[in-house]
Amino acid sequence: MASRRARQNHKPSVRYPIRKPRVFWLKEDGIANGTPSRAVQASLNGLDGLSQTAEQSIGTASSVALHNALRRYGIEGEEAFLVLAARYLDTRKAARRDFSFFPVERGFATLNIVAHDKQVLSILDGILAADPQGRELPTWYQFFFGRRFREGSGKFFTPRMVATAMAKLLPVQPGAILMDPTCGGGTFLCEASRRWRDTQYQLVGNDVDRMLVGLTELVLALSAPTNHSFALSCCNLYDADAEFRNLRGKVNGILANPPFSLPLEHVAKPGELFALGYRNSDALFLDVCLDMLAPGGNLVCLLPHSLVVNAEFDQLRRMVERHWELCGVVTLPEGVFYLTGNTTTRADILHLRKKLGRHQQTHKVFFANAPTVGFPLNSRTTYLGENSLELIAGDPRVLECAGTVR
Ligand SMILES: C[S@@+](CC[C@H](N)C(=O)[O-])C[C@H]1O[C@@H](n2cnc3c(N)ncnc32)[C@H](O)[C@@H]1O
Fold first, then answer.
1. Ligand 1 proximity of 155 Cβ (cutoff 6 Å)
2. CB-based burial, 82-97: b 16+ in 10 Å, e otherwise
3. Residue 154 CB–ligand 1 contact under 6 Å
4. Is the pLDDT of residue 147 over 70?
């Protein structure tokens, strides 16, 4: 009995009820020797209450300098972010486009308050020079909003390194429509657009929070190449019928991190999971994606680890098998959203493909475990280790399963 229990304990922790496909297991248990870079070390001694991952990517010196310089004018929070955003608009050609969501006038009005201050302008221009495309604007947004933005609201951004790895799993298809239905600050759309720079793409973003749609609009206006068009909307994904009518069944790829664990008693277009009794925003996100994707379309998204392993989601997984091909699962370490979202909820990256017909799945499936993601997982650790997620997303076996190489 004891030895049976011991054998059970050695089984991999992720199981998925798919019987036929050949499965291999990629495990990245080793953590490479190494010490954090100076920038990271500096960030770890940074401002109380501000995200370490944020400081890591935007730089402690410039974030502290801008924060302090703007505070002298009583400019904090959203207004402080608007100053930086307006400086981007002022100096980049993006200012010439019409914005539907981003509050351009408010931004310029706030920038005008400090426009005479050479020190503030020099800090702003240093930030622009280091990141001309504004890739880090979502990080700056979180930086200025701090805990008020993330705590309990579920509104936090996926760390860019995770979004970059996820974008690598999506096959490139010229002329495709790529969507993030809960786009937040647009990190996924921005990373996908960077990856497919030379291919024509249509980017579609939506979020229930208007300011976040505005942030996505700004980020894409600054970073998307001219062969990428983008369309944005602001609506409740689960209650949107008319808004998404034109896209239904036409989207080729979805990259997303939907809200987890929000109870939903009503949805505009109940799918099979709703009919089975699932009432959480994460599970029902799969219903929405099935409805939006074209047959053969890919979904690469973050979902709670419990959906992949817990018995209470058996029926959900059976439904997934009926309508989707499983391409792969990456389990992420606990704490991957701790510093940006203040949550220890475990999440996995799921790659699913909407079935073309009723055929049996024949291709390989990857299961991978990423113990490190290239940034600290809690506020005590200064040790980063290697970025095993990056290794996984570049592994030819994974890319073969993902369909990005054939
Ligand atoms: C975990 S955040 C992820 C944001 C972004 N996709 C990213 O990864 O950085 C979830 C996002 O879903 C949005 N959201 C929550 N409920 C929503 C709903 N019912 N419809 C559309 N968006 C929603 C939130 O405003 C938030 O931006």
1. yes
2. bbbbbbbbbeeebbee
3. yes
4. no
Strands 201-206 and 176-180: parallel
* 127 vs 145: CA distance, rounded Å: 18
Tracing tokens 């280790």 back to the chain, one arrives at 385
Domain boundaries, the chain: 46-150, 160-402
Average pLDDT over residues 125-150: 84
| Atom nearest to 337 CA in ligand 1 | 1
- What the block records as the tokens of 22 is 């050949």
Candidates 27, 32, 30, 31; CA nearest to 369 is 27
Whether 52 is in the pocket of ligand 1, judged by its Cβ within 6 Å, is no
Residue 202: left (phi > 0), alpha (psi -120 to 50), or beta?
beta
DSSP reduced 3-state for 94: helix
Helix residue spans in 59-103 (DSSP H): 60-71, 77-91
pLDDT band at 28 (very low <50, low <70, confident <90, very high): very low
| Residue of 208, 238, 302, 343 to mutate, ligand 1, most atoms within 8 A of C-beta | 208
Report the Cα 170 to chain-centroid distance in Å.
Answer: 13
One-letter identity of residue 69: A
Distance of CA 206 to the CA centre of its chain: 13
Indicate the fold that domain 160-402 takes in CATH.
Rossmann fold (3.40.50)
Residue 14 one-letter amino acid: V
Q: Is the model's pTM score more than 0.90?
A: no
**Mutational test site, ligand 1, from 140, 207, 244, max ligand atoms within 8 Å of CB:** 207
pLDDT-based confidence at 310, cuts 50/70/90?
very high
322-376 confidence digits (pLDDT tens) = 999 999 999 998 877 776 666 778 899 999 999 987 666 667 899 999 888 877 7
Tell the residue nearest (CA) to atom 26 of ligand 1.
155
Quick one: 284 exposed, middle or buried, by C-beta within 10 A (0-12, 13-18, 19+)? buried
- What tens digit of pLDDT does each residue of 153-195 get? 567 788 888 999 999 999 988 999 999 999 999 999 999 999 9
